[in-house]
From TrEMBL:
Pfam families per the UniProt record, alphabetical: IL12 (PF03039)
Main location (coarse class): secreted
Name the record gives this protein: Interleukin-12 subunit alpha
GO biological process, one term: immune response
GO molecular function, one term: growth factor activity
Keywords in alphabetical order: Cytokine, Disulfide bond, Growth factor, Secreted, Signal
The organism's taxonomic lineage, starting at the top: Eukaryota, Metazoa, Chordata, Craniata, Vertebrata
Encoding gene, per UniProt annotation: IL12A
Keyword Ribosomal protein listed: no
Domain of life: Eukaryota
Subcellular localization: Secreted
One GO location term (cellular component): extracellular space
Length: 207
């Protein structure tokens, strides 16, 4: 219950910020109720991917502990807090933090990973049914987030992304290995996204 109040308060703030930045332009904003749901959904997605990676199925027998960051959305850059000058940090940006740019890149990420998981199902898999039933709920969560939490109707449809289906081939071991590495990368990206949502909600970028 305490958590719910926290999210709700944050989201009212997020909503206010969207209003202020949308100065007259017809930008769609999340209503307070949807917004509260979205913060919760992003947290659930993170927990879900954590669980998914703890499950032995996807990464079973894979020795490599490589992480693949597949999506080329600029979430890390555009969602980094505005930093004080000369902090010596690599992530330093010249432009101020843009909430809508950050959200746009988050949606681009989600679009990429949704397409990647979706296409994975069409290729040879070691334990097809089990892998599908493991991944499908997560795919569903991503789709809900894309539908309910996007500011733009066609967000995440970006032709500049390479086609994720290119990752998969005829070899079920390779496919699973690529999926395992990709989900590790997505896990890290989801941590970044949750951090960004917290930053946006805190209103720190308005100071
Ligand atoms: C992810 O969440 C969905 C929906 O709550 C659930 O059905 C599924 O079992 C979860 N997956 C994992 C790996 O926890
Ligand atoms: C997504 O939005 C629809 C209506 O816009 C709503 O019915 C549904 O409950 C929302 N889903 C979640 C998980 O918040
Ligand atoms: C997004 O891309 C998919 C596949 O490329 C396409 O089928 C769909 O119509 C596009 N959606 C929008 C809103 O552009
Ligand atoms: C994959 O399998 C299909 C059908 O079995 C075959 O036609 C195709 O050449 C194979 N592709 C590769 C890259 O091995």
């Amino acid at each position: 219950m305490a958590n719910f109040h926290f999210y709700f308060a944050s989201c009212v703030l997020l909503l206010t910020l969207s209003w202020r930045t949308s100065t007259g332009l017809p930008v769609r904003t999340l209503d307070a109720e949807n917004c509260a749901q979205c913060s919760v959904l992003f947290k659930s997605l993170l927990l879900n991917i954590t669980e998914l990676l703890n499950n032995d199925l996807l990464c079973y027998g894979i020795r490599s502990d490589k992480v693949a960051l597949r999506s080329n959305a600029e979430t890390v850059l555009t969602c980094a807090p505005a930093l004080t000058q000369n902090s010596g940090c690599i992530m330093q940006r010249n432009s101020p933090f843009s909430e809508s740019e950050c959200l746009r890149n988050i949606m681009k990420d989600l679009g990429y990973y949704a397409a990647a998981i979706d296409s994975y199902f069409n290729f040879p898999l070691r334990r097809s049914e089990e892998e599908k039933s493991l991944l499908k709920p997560t795919l569903g969560m991503i789709q809900t987030l894309r539908k309910n939490c996007s500011l733009m109707p066609d967000a995440g449809n970006d032709s500049s992304e390479e086609n994720p289906a290119q990752m998969w081939g005829n070899d079920s071991f390779n496919n699973r290995q690529e999926m395992c590495k990709m989900m590790r990368g997505f896990h890290i990206r989801t941590i970044t996204i949750n951090r960004a949502m917290g930053y946006i909600s805190s209103g720190d970028h308005m100071q």
